[in-house]
C-alpha cells in the first residue's frame, strides 16, 4: 500500500483492497501523511471518523459478495478537506445515499441500515454527494478542517 502525495503535500491518493483489514491499514497510512498530520486535532478527528464510516460501509455492503478496490483521494483547499471515494462494488439501494436518521432511544438492538454511521457522515460533512457512473460508485464530500472554538 502506497500513498501518493501531490505537490506540496496538499493532496493524496490511495488505493486499497475492499477488505476490513485493508481499511484499517489504509486509514493508518492516511492519518500518518503530512497532509492529515498537519490538520488541527478536531479536523483530523473528523476526517478519521467520516473516512472510517464511509470505507467500512463500502467493505460491508458494496463488496459484501465480491472483491474489489477502493480509491481514496483527499485534497486540502482553503481550510477544507475535499474527499472523493470510489469503488466498483454494488450500488447504493435505489441509487441513493441512506437518510442517516437516528433510531429512537432504546431501539439500539435493531438499528436500521443507514442509521448511526450515515448520521455521523451527514452531520460532519458538507456537500455529500453520491452517484454511479460506468459501474463505479462515486462518493464525495467536504470536511471543515478548522478547530471548533473553545
From TrEMBL:
SUPFAM superfamilies: ATPase domain of HSP90 chaperone/DNA topoisomerase II/histidine kinase (SSF55874). InterPro entries: Anti-sigma-factor_SerPK (IPR050267), HATPase_C_sf (IPR036890), HATPase_dom (IPR003594). Keywords: ATP-binding, Kinase, Nucleotide-binding, Serine/threonine-protein kinase, Transferase. Residues 20-142 form the Histidine kinase/HSP90-like ATPase domain. Signal peptide: none annotated. One of its GO terms (molecular function) is ATP binding. It holds the Pfam family HATPase_c_2. This is ATP-binding protein. The lineage of its organism: Bacteria, Pseudomonadati, Pseudomonadota, Alphaproteobacteria, Rhodobacterales. The keyword Cytoplasm does not apply.
